[in-house]
TrEMBL record:
It is an enzyme of class 2 (transferase). Coiled coil: none annotated. Catalyzes the reductive methylation of 2'-deoxyuridine-5'-monophosphate (dUMP) to 2'-deoxythymidine-5'-monophosphate (dTMP) while utilizing 5,10-methylenetetrahydrofolate (mTHF) as the methyl donor, and NADPH and FADH(2) as the reductant. The active site is at R223 (involved in ionization of n3 of dump, leading to its activation). One of its GO terms (molecular function) is NADPH binding. The keyword NADP applies. DUMP binds at Q109, W110, I111, R112, E120, Y121, S122, A123, R124, R196, R223. Homotetramer. The gene is thyX. This is Flavin-dependent thymidylate synthase.
């Protein structure tokens, strides 16, 4: 179950009582407030609150640029200029607060982005639900032979079935023991803060995550990338949809210059210039390592 009955009741109550406001609002984001967007088998993302819109980015930029800027640049052009030239502070004027339910091992990756405010569900005070992330069969894969962090070919047949059964049975057994340890039926019961250490990393946790748009774009550039781990990438992809409706000009610039663009090293740029002059450039005469050369070839297609 993505949300508890209590959480759903709270969401329904908030949605049923809209309030007028004098602050700037993003019509695209308003439709997402208090809506649940499922991710993985038990997870979700929902927008709790936000501040700012495309206009807020431009407003902040024009304060620093001085009077008269608006007469020569429209909002979209200004935002694209800011993104193109790596001006970050105007994007920090927008913030978003998300409620996310996610597996613990995904949360441990996510929390490495230390530029957000986080408040996580506490297993010291509360009992975690019996909910575990169990991958879909097509997501079970062998270790990649070229990337120590990644996956290779999908597992099939008996091996895939055996792995799924191990994941399900180990998760259930760990939770059974967790319940047995904290139970006060005929015993004192182990403290929750100790019992939780026996739970597997695929159990679900929840948190509120508040971040400004500049740092959110950095998170999305890394985690919505095709090379990111699938389990965090699907969360990032869902957030991308929200951001595209919230700040459409900024998100389009982000897609063009960050997600769809490439940053080349001085050596790589020199190779491209030599290629354009008609030179036969190889890895051996490029001055680049084998891995750098392979990555450049991928960029150039």
């Amino acid at each position: 179950m993505p949300v508890t009955p209590e959480q759903q009741a709270e969401i329904d109550a908030l949605r049923s009582a809209p309030r007028s406001t004098l602050r700037a609002v993003s019509e695209g984001m308003e439709k997402h407030l208090y809506s649940i967007y499922p991710v993985l088998d038990h997870g979700f993302v929902r927008v709790v609150d936000y501040m700012g819109d495309d206009a807020a980015i431009c407003q902040a930029a024009r304060v620093s640029y001085g009077k008269g800027t608006k007469s020569v640049q429209n909002d979209e052009g200004l935002i694209r200029y800011l993104m193109r030239h790596w001006h970050s502070t105007p994007f920090e004027m927008c913030e978003i607060k998300l409620h996310v339910k996610l597996p613990v091992f995904v949360a441990r990756q996510w929390i490495r982005h230390r530029t957000a405010n986080v408040n996580e569900y506490s297993a010291r005070y509360s009992i975690l639900d019996r909910e575990f992330y169990i991958p879909a069969p097509e997501q079970l894969a062998a270790q990649s032979v070229i990337n120590n962090q990644g996956r290779g070919q999908a597992l099939t047949g008996d091996e895939a079935a055996r792995v799924l059964e191990i994941l399900k049975s180990d998760s259930g057994r760990a939770y059974d023991n967790y319940e047995a340890m904290i139970s006060q039926d005929g015993q004192e019961g182990l403290a929750r803060e100790l019992a939780r250490m026996n739970l597997p990393a695929n159990i679900y946790t929840q948190w509120y995550w508040k971040v400004d748009l500049h740092n959110l774009f950095h998170f999305l550039r890394l985690r919505a990338d095709s090379h990111a781990q699938y389990e965090i990438r699907v969360y990032a992809e869902e957030i991308c949809k929200l951001v595209a409706d919230w700040v459409p000009f900024a998100y389009k610039a982000f897609e063009d210059y960050r997600m769809g663009g490439e940053t080349l090293s001085a050596a790589a740029l020199d190779c491209v210039r030599r290629m354009l002059k008609g030179e036969d450039v190889t890895q051996e005469n490029s001055g680049m390592s084998a891995r750098e050369w392979r990555e450049l070839q991928e960029v150039l297609g």
